[in-house]
């Protein structure tokens, strides 16, 4: 397995729309494993392929306490959603920034697992937020884009400054 570099906002590549995975083969499974390792090393609960500059519709997440319950969604589709929840979100591509985002409280999602087998999952609460956040990445959307323009500008300035300082 290998750790993959994570793109940081406002990198324009984060706004790429990912394409469907046509076949869940060994290459895709390696990507899943590398993404899981990268997410755990960065102490995140979710990661979309977009964030590691691979523009395929694939996300991994683990919202469990013990971090031993990896969930893989290949070509995820939102079948239904209802209710509203507001939750503080963060993102491995926007380090150190946390803010509240309103999303659906309950969702039903269809996807393929690591073996390419279709499944349907009903999710609510944190898991539902996390899936919606990661699916947004596949459409080129970062959570800060739900915030006011003023906040987005502040975040961009802060992260650009930090990127310069770490060069
Ligand atoms: Ni994110």
Question: How does this structure look, described?
Answer:
The chain has 167 residues and is α+β, with helices and mostly antiparallel strands. It has one domain: Peptide Deformylase. It is 28% helix and 26% strand. The protein is built from three helices and seven strands, in the order H-E-E-E-E-E-E-E-H-H. The protein has helices spanning 26-41, 125-138, 149-165; strands at 46-48, 58-61, 71-82, 85-89, 99-103, 106-112, 118-124. Strands 1-2-3-6-7 form a five-stranded antiparallel β-sheet. Strands 4-5 form a two-stranded antiparallel ribbon. Strand 6 (106-112) and strand 7 form a beta hairpin. It is globular and about 45 Å long. The two termini are 27 Å apart. The structure holds nickel (II) ion (NI). Nickel (II) ion (NI) binds at residues 91, 93, 133, 137.
Number of separate structural domains: 1
The string of secondary-structure elements, in order, is HEEEEEEEHH
* Total number of helices: 3
Low-confidence stretches: none
Q: In CATH terms, what is the architecture?
A: Alpha-Beta Complex
According to CATH, the homologous superfamily is Peptide deformylase
Give helix % range.
25-40%
CATH T-level topology: Peptide Deformylase
DSSP E strands, number? 7
Radius of gyration: 15 Å
**Tertiary shape:** globular
Give the overall pLDDT as a whole number: 96
- Bound compounds, please? nickel (II) ion
In whole angstroms, the N-to-C terminal distance is: 27 Å
Q: Please identify the structural class as seen in this structure.
A: alpha+beta
